[in-house]
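The protein record reproduced below.
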Amino acid sequence: MRDTTLIPRRSLLMCACALTILSMLLSPGTGSADNPTATHLKKHGITIDATKLVPISWWQVPGVTPSIWNSDPESLDAPKTSERRELQLKPGKYKFISFTFDFPFTVSLNGTLDFSPSLDQCVEGRGTQVLMVLCKRTYPHGGQRDAYYEQKPNHD
């Protein structure tokens, strides 16, 4: 005689396996809607402030803002030095580029900035979320500030 409980046991076993697999796929840590973003994927609001630069020009962070090299200056979409701009950046390495000065900077896992200490005369904001660009070009002769940098911005 045939066991009639065999089919319900198989069905029950298959349902249990399917539910186990489904719960593993939706568990925290694998991308469910309730899972907070992994630290290395979280975007942070980083403000770039190049408003001290004179005369007014444009800047870019490659891969994040429009390029300053590919467009007509009259219709350029890249950020201008006359305005502060907040960018949403993931932790990682980036580069600030203007027509006369560029440098690398890093966004840490906790969303703070870091850059080379050799830039301290021209860049501020280490350990914060605001990158202040103070120089249009790096200083010559061991960091002596020249009169060019004493000009006041004209943001008309």
User: Anything to note?
Assistant: The first strand starts at residue 44 and ends at 49. The domain at 39-148 is CATH 2.60.40 (Immunoglobulin-like).
